[in-house]
Input
Amino acid sequence: MTDTDPLVPVLAGIVVDVVHFLDSCGDDEVAPDVAVRTAENAGWALRELPPRGRARLLRVLDDLAAAEPDPARRRALESFGFACGLVDEEPS
Output
């Protein structure tokens, strides 16, 4: 892990999981306007991080993805930076 604070990877993983849930849930689980607004607010807040904070978050997400055994969650972790506008290029 690239971060010595054990709370950072846990919180980063939770943010990815929540945003992924909001992007993939049905209308019967969460009202669409609430899901979109909440996911967009999360992305906005992360884009407001200073450059060093963004880089730190992206490193943590890379580490989490590398260690993730579930292929679906690994893809969510790998694509999160692009999906939230933290990086310009989608991962390959």
About this structure: The mean pLDDT is 92. Helices lie at 7-24, 32-47, 51-67, 71-83.
